TrEMBL record:
Residues 1-51, 146-169 are annotated as: Disordered. Residues 60-140 form the Core-binding (CB) domain. Belongs to the 'phage' integrase family. PANTHER family: PROPHAGE INTEGRASE, PROPHAGE INTEGRASE INTS-RELATED. It comes from Actinomadura harenae. GO terms for biological process: DNA integration; DNA recombination. This is Core-binding (CB) domain-containing protein. It comes from the Bacteria. Keywords: DNA integration, DNA recombination, DNA-binding.
């Protein structure tokens, strides 16, 4: 049974009660002895019912609990980095100073509303809410909160704008769209390799980190017509780490005929393609199939800013609060144009790039690859195998990818590539990217020869 003690010159009362661990808890500030005893007895009743939390823990500053929670996580470097980013940008700025146990569902609703007003995407808000849910669920388990304020079922209609609360659909593109984006990357980067890199992602379905981490010894195009996804390079706060593919998705990816030749040529063209990182990613330096300028790896932010986003959207990154179009000039064989930079670039340019597929990302090329397989009616088990996924349940036990399925994938990809070349040649027969310019000329010559043979056969 709880009891009360008098303290201070004002004669207030302090409630005293026995905690589950046998120690004595206290709560000051009561005007009467009866009020203090009543409060203490109520706390002990909560203990008996299993619905008790230490008031001192409930009052722990949220930022203190959040840091303790974060330090206790034991996850992959990229996951920890993502957690840190979400905490610092979207969670802590709002909840600093709050008692962890004082947060209510109405406060969570106000927080997500504020994030929307600040312009965060629905997918980012959903991620932050999921992180907050986990954080508060662990707070309940550790006595810092009585209930999870994020675990609250909505009992009213949808918001008027019907904004989604989960991740948005990933943008994907057509084979021609992938070719146009790759060509622009080649123009912006100034190397055939900058054209081949996104094209390889689109026609293999690799993740960006898997493509960045593709070592020369695993690019077995010439001998075996495939590449081996054995590792990926993950970037965490400016450093690259050599790690297994996500979900341990090690796999062989067979290449369509055109890509066999392009990857083989790329491997033959590079010599001692070691990265210029200050420290090896593990025990020794390694040679890579694709490197950025200066033999560095493509850093995600730099690659998006310098090549991929301008190629996709036709707009350069924000500078002085504004985004400028990619201005270009045209000369013979220079389509899609040579970028014009520097002072009065708009006045000196002849045109500006239009968007290809706004919102497309390198991961969107992986989604495109998946979509193309769906359109070609490839069995799901073969899609899973190619993308490095594991099919669960009884289907995964009794389903197997066959050689015929894999060949159907390659046949469909080769057809799509040839159709995209024809569509690209219809726009302009030449390209400012030397590799694509050669491919276009060869494709048109082959098409012309095929047409001539058909005419001769028809005449005969």
């Amino acid at each position: 049974m709880a009891w009360a003690e008098r303290y201070g010159k004002q004669g207030k009362w302090r409630a005293r009660y026995t905690k589950p661990d046998g120690t004595t808890g206290s709560e000051p500030g009561f005007r009467t002895k009866r009020a203090a005893e009543s409060w203490g007895n109520a706390e002990e009743e909560k203990m008996k019912g299993g619905d008790w939390a230490d008031p001192k823990l409930l009052g722990t500053p949220f930022e203190t609990w959040a840091e303790e929670w974060y330090e206790a996580q034991d996850l992959a470097e990229t996951t920890m980095s993502n957690y840190r980013s979400t905490l610092d940008s979207m969670i802590l700025p709002h909840w600093v100073g709050w008692g962890t146990g004082s947060i209510k569902p109405i406060n969570i609703a106000g927080w997500t509303k504020k994030l929307r007003a600040e312009g965060y995407k629905p997918s980012s808000i959903a991620t932050a809410h999921a992180r907050m849910y986990t954080l508060m669920e662990d707070a309940v388990d550790n006595g810092y909160a009585r209930k999870n304020p994020c675990d609250h079922k909505r009992k009213r209609g949808k918001r008027s704008d019907n904004a989604p609360t989960s991740s948005e659909e990933e943008v994907w593109t057509t084979p021609l769209g992938a070719l146009l984006v790759a060509e622009r990357c080649g123009v912006l980067g100034g190397r055939d390799e900058d054209f081949l890199f996104p094209l390889t992602i689109a026609y293999t379905g690799m993740r960006l980190g898997e493509a960045i981490g593709l070592e020369k010894r695993y690019a077995r195009a010439k001998l075996h017509g495939l590449i081996r996804v054995e590792w990926q390079l993950v970037e965490v706060r400016g450093h690259f780490y050599r790690r297994p593919p996500k979900g341990d998705g090690r796999r062989d990816i067979q290449l369509p005929p055109f890509l066999v030749d392009l990857i083989a040529d790329q491997i033959a063209a590079i010599d001692k393609n070691f990265c210029a990182c200050d420290e090896p990613h593990d025990d020794r330096p390694r040679e890579y199939t694709f490197l950025g300028p200066g033999s560095g790896h493509h850093r995600r932010s730099n690659y998006y800013r310098r090549q991929f986003t301008p190629a996709v959207e036709g707009m350069r990154p924000v500078r002085d609060g504004e985004r400028a179009p990619v201005y270009v000039s045209y000369e013979e064989s220079s389509w899609p144009g040579a970028p014009v930079v520097g002072r009065n670039s708009a006045g000196r340019a002849e045109a500006a790039w239009l968007p290809v597929e706004p919102g497309l990302t390198p991961h969107g090329l992986r989604h495109s690859h998946k979509t193309w397989m769906l359109e070609d009616h490839i069995p799901e088990i073969a899609q899973f195998e190619r993308l490095g996924h594991t099919m669960g349940g009884i289907r995964g036990v009794y389903s197997h990818a066959s050689d015929d399925m894999r060949q159907a994938i390659l046949t469909g990809l080769q057809r799509r590539w040839e159709e995209s070349l024809s569509a690209r040649a219809a726009i302009s027969p030449r390209s400012a990217v030397p590799l694509l310019d050669r491919l276009l000329r060869e494709h048109q010559a082959a098409a012309h020869l095929k047409g001539s043979v058909a005419e001769i056969a028809k005449a005969g």
